[in-house]
Amino acid sequence: MLTEATDPIATRFIAGGTNLLDLMKQQVEQPAKLVDINRLPLSAITELPNGGLRLGALVTNADTAYHPLVQGRYPLLAQTILAGASPQLRNKATNGGNLMQRTRCYYFYDVATPCNKRMPGSGCGALGGYNRVCGILGTSESCIATHPSDMCVALAALEAVVQVSGPHGERTIPMADFHRLPGNEPHRDNTLLPGELITAIDLPAQGFAQHYTYLKLRDRTSYAFALVSVAVGLELTDGLITQARLALGGVAHKPWRRPAAEAMLVGQPAEPETYRAVVQSLLAGSRGYDHNAFKIELAERAIVQALSQALNRSA
Amino acid sequence: MKSIKAALIDATLNTVETLVGHLPDPAPDPLRNAREFIGKPYPRVDGRLKVTGQARYATEHPIAGMTHAVVVHSSIAKGKISHLDTQAAESVPGVLAVMTHRNAPRMKTPETASLFNPVAGSNTSVPVMQSADITWNGEAVAVVVAETLELANYAAGLVGIRYEEEPAALSLEAEKGNATIPTLVVTQSPEVNIGDAKAALAVAPVVSDQEYETPWQNQHAMEPHASIAAWMGKDQLLVYDSTQSPPGVQHNLARMFDLKPEQVRVVTEFVGGAFGGKVAAWSNVPLAAAAARLVGRPVKLALSRAGVSMVVGGRTLTQQRVALGATLDGKLTAMIHTGYGMRTTKDVWAEQYTFPIRHLYASPNIHVLQKVVRLDRVQNSYMRAPGETPGSFALESAMDELAHKLGLDPVELRMRNEPDKDPTHGTYFSSRHLREAYALAAGKFGWDPQRPEPGTQREGDWLIGTGVATAFYPVQQLPVTIKARITADGHVEVSTSSIEMGVGLATVQTQHIAERFGVPYERARYLHGDTDLPMSQASGGSAATSSVGAAIHAAADKLTEKLLKLAQRNKQSVLRGVKRKNVELRAGGLYRLDQPAVGESYEQLLGASGQAFVEAEGSVPASALVLNMKTSMASYGAHFCEVRVHARTRQVQVRRFMSAFDCGRIMNPQTARSQIVGGIIMGIGMALMEEAVYDERTGRLMTPSLGEYHVPVHADVPEFEVYFLDEPDPVMPMGTKPVGEVSIVGTAAAVANAVFQATGIRVRHLPITADKLL
Ligand SMILES: Cc1cc2nc3c(=O)[nH]c(=O)nc-3n(C[C@H](O)[C@H](O)[C@H](O)COP(=O)(O)OP(=O)(O)OC[C@H]3O[C@@H](n4cnc5c(N)ncnc54)[C@H](O)[C@@H]3O)c2cc1C
Ligand code: SF4
C-alpha cells in the first residue's frame, strides 16, 4: 500500500530543501512534482494571546534560534536548534522541514539495500546490519529507525502544538502525536495526512526558561546527529521539583517521552538519588541491537547528566 | 634448501640493493646550512591563484564540446551481471551513451604499479569494465554520458542491473584462517627474526601482550578523483587528471588503449589533496578515456563523494598483536609485532604496520610477521603513512601499557630503549634526534614524569589525562627527472612532470632554486604537472621535496660545467682557465671559490656566448625504503597530548597537542607546519571518530558520505604547537627529511594513551567513541 508519504512519485512541498534535495539526489525520493512553498506567508514569529509563541513553518532554524523571544522565553529550544546541523544548514532549514526530515538510517539512504521505510515490504537492512544509529525504544520488527531531529526533542519537551492546513481544513496536532512509532507501517513517519501543510508550531506559555538543558551526545563535537540527546525543562519551588519535562532524541522513531517518568520527579528534591527510578521508567522496555546496545547505558548517563545540568543552571 | 618464496624475496631484495647502491647523496649537500631562501616562511607561490579561484583543478579546464559522465556502481560484492537494461537511460534526451561491459571499448588489463615498476600507473590489475564479472561492492558497472551532469545523474538512476551473486569473502575476522604471508611488505621481508623473541617473552619479568585493531578508512581528499579525457583524433589522448603521478596515468592509459606513451598527454596543474589515494590511477581514469572514445567527444568524469569511497581503496582494517617483554628497569628484552591486513584476489599490498617496530627500539629479540587475508573488496592502497599509521597505534599503545606495568614514565621508557644502531638492519642512523625532540616537547608541554594514577585527575565533571607517543617515517627517494634552464636574462626555470598536491612543493622548490643558483626569488621558477615536461614518477612517500631537490642539485652540477665551458671559450672571461673544483653557482652567476669576488653573472656568461639559455637535465632513481640503504634514515617526532573525558557521558576532547620533530632541515616553516598540523588532525580523527563501515553480509559501504564518515571539525581539534629541531641530515639533499606523513604516525596512540591516563580504560580498538568508555 502506498500512501502519499511513501509514494516515490508523489507531490512534495519544498521548503529549505536541505533534506529533500539530498533524498532526491540519492533517489530515495523521486517526487513527480515539487511545490515551492517558500513564498507562502509563514515566515513570522508572533506572540499568542495565551502567552505562547507561534513559530511560522517557514521561519528558518537559525532565525528561530536567534529570535529574542525564543532566546528569552524558550532558551531550551534555542539551545537545541543550535546543537543541530551547521550554521549554513540552519540558515536554510525551516521549522516545518525540520519536523518532516526523514531518518538518517544508513539503509534508508542506500537504494541498493532493503528498507521497509523506503520500500515497504523489502525488509529492514538495519535489523541485522550496521545499526549503531538506530533506535532502542519503540522499535518494531519492521523498522528500528530513529527520528533524527534535535529541534523536535525540545518541541516535545515543551509540548508544542503543530498547526496544519489541508484539503479538509485546518487542525492541530500535539507534538506527542505528530511523529509515530514504526509498527508495521514504517513508511509513515508521522500523522500528517496527504496534502496537509504545516503552517506553524505553537509554543505554550510555559517555557522552562530557568531550569533547562539540551544535552547532545554524538561521535564528534559538532555537525553530527545525536547518538542520544536529552531535553529537560524543570520548574522548582523551594528546592522541590514542581513540574518536569524530559524528552529523548536519537533513541526512537519519535522524540521519546513518558509522562509517568516525569511525574516521578514532581515533589522530589533536586538530588541525584531521585533520578534512578526516573531513568528506569523512561527507558523501560528499551532493547539494544548488535551495534547500538550501548545507547541504553549512554541514555541512562545522559538523562542523569542532563537533569543535573538543568538543576545547576541558573538563568 | 631455501624455499622458492624465500629465494624470490632474496632476489627482489638484491634488486633493491643494486637500485639503491649509490643512494642517497654521497657527499653532504653544501646547501644543508644555506639560509638566504631555504628555511624562510615564504607564502605559497600558488596561494593567490588558489584563493582567487584561478588555480585550475582537473575538471576546471574548458574544452569545447564537453560531456559529463556519471558512474553506476555495483550493489553486490561478487558474481556476475545477469541482466542489463540500459534502454530507459539511453532514451533520455541528452544522454549520449550508457557504457557497460557490453559496449565499452576494449581496454587491456592494467598493471599494478610498484616500486619495481612505478610507471605501470594503476592501483590494481583488475580489468576495467571488460566482462560481466563483479569483484567488489561498488565497482563501476556502467558509465552514463550526457550533455549535462544533471542529465547523466538522472539517467544513471534508470540503469537497471540484476546480478547472479556468488558467496564473497567479506570479513577479515571470518577469513583469518585462510591468511597467507605476502612476498614483500613494500620492499621488505614480511618476517623478521632476531634472537628468540618468543622464548625471551616467556621469561621476561614484565610483559605487555595485547591485540589492537584499526578500522577501514576511506580517502576523502577535497578534490575527488576526477578527470577530463579528450581524444585528438584516433590516437592522441589528452587527459587532465587529479593524480599524484601524471606519467603513471600516461603509461597506464597507453597500455590499456594500446598507444605509445607519447600519444598520451596528462596534465595536472593542481591537485586538491591526494594523501596517497592518487599515487596511481583507479578505474575512473580509463573509464573517462573509454567513455570519451565511445561518444567521440571530451568527457568530464568526477567521482561523487560516495563514488570515491567505492572506486578508490583506502586503508585496510588491521588486527595486530604487540607483545613486549622488559626487565624490571625497563629494558626491552623481547618485541613481537604480528598481524593481519587485507589483500584482494588480484593484488597484494601489505601495509607496512610493522615498520615502526623495526626501527624504533633496541631489543635483542625481535619477531615480526605480517599476514594478509584475501577479501572481495576494493583494493586497499596508500593512505597517509600507510602501515606506519595503524602500526604505530599498536606499538605506541603497547609501549604505554608496558610503562604503566613497570610504573615507569612512558617518556623515560622510550629513552631507555633508544637504539644506537638500527635494531633490525644494524646500520647507523644518518641522523636521529628523537631524544632531543622528546626533551623539547616535554619542556614546552610541561610534562610531569610522575603523573598520578590513571583516572584520578579531575576538573569538575571532566577527567584529565596526558599521553605521549613517538612519530616515525622512513626516508625514500622517488625517481625524478627535471630540466633546469638558465636564461640570458638571469632567470632560472626548473620543470618536471611531478605534481603539486597542495603541500607546498612548488614553493619550497622555488626557494631551493633561488638558493641553489643564487638568483633572486622572483627569478626562480618551478613548472610542474605535465607529461610534456621531464618525467618524474609519483609524488608520495613524503619524498618529493628531497627527490626533486636532488635532481635539481644534479642539474645544477651539470650547468656549472656547461657555464664554465662557455667561460673557457671566451677569451675575456675572468674564469678562463679556472678548474671545475674551484667554481660555484652563487650571486646570480659562476664565481671562484678561492677568490669569491671573481666571476661572471649568468647574463654576462650567456651574453658573451650569444646563447639564449643553457639547460641540463638532472635525475635521481628510485630508492627502496631507508632499511635498504647504507644508513638508516627517517624522520622522528614526539607527540604530547592532553585530553579531557566527561566523567559521566564519556565525551572525549583533545585539549592540547604539542609535538617536536626531527624532520631534518625545514625548507619552509610555514608549509611544513601546515603539513604537520594536517597530519595530526587526521590522526585525531583516526583516534576518535574515523571509520569506514561495511555491512559484512554484503560488503556494502554504509558510510559513503561525510555525514556518516566522520572526520574532525574545528571543535574537535585544539590549538597546535609544533616545534622543529631543524637539524640538517648530513646525507640528504638540502639536509631534508620527510615531513608530509610523519605527524599522523603516533598521533592516535598519543590520544589513546591520554584517554587511558584520564579514565583508566585502555581502548585497543579504534576509534575511541564514547561507547568504548562506558
Ligand atoms: C549534513 C546535514 C546535517 C544535519 N544535521 C542535523 C542535526 O544535527 N540535527 C537536526 O535536527 N537536523 C540536522 N539536519 C537536518 C536539517 O535540520 C533538516 O534537513 C532541515 O530541518 C529540513 O528543513 P528544510 O526546510 O530544508 O526541509 P526540506 O528539505 O525542504 O523538506 C523536508 C521535508 O519536509 C517537507 N516539508 C517541508 N516544509 C513543510 C511544511 N511546511 N509542511 C509539510 N511538509 C513540509 C518536505 O516536503 C520534505 O518532505 C542535517 C541536515 C544535513 C544535510
Ligand atoms: S530501520 Fe527502518 S529505515 Fe532503517 S532499514 Fe530498517 S526499515 Fe529502513
From TrEMBL, chain B:
Pfam families: Ald_Xan_dh_C, MoCoBD_1, MoCoBD_2. It comes from the Bacteria. GO terms for molecular function: iron ion binding; oxidoreductase activity. Residues 52-167 form the Aldehyde oxidase/xanthine dehydrogenase a/b hammerhead domain. InterPro entries: Ald_Oxase/Xan_DH_a/b, Ald_Oxase/Xan_DH_a/b_sf, Ald_Oxase/xanthine_DH-like, AldOxase/xan_DH_MoCoBD1, AldOxase/xan_DH_MoCoBD2, AldOxase/xan_DH_Mopterin-bd_sf. Keywords: Molybdenum, Oxidoreductase. PANTHER family: ALDEHYDE OXIDASE 1-RELATED (PTHR11908:SF132), XANTHINE DEHYDROGENASE (PTHR11908). This is Aldehyde oxidase/xanthine dehydrogenase a/b hammerhead domain-containing protein. It comes from Hymenobacter crusticola. The lineage of its organism: Bacteria, Pseudomonadati, Bacteroidota, Cytophagia, Cytophagales.
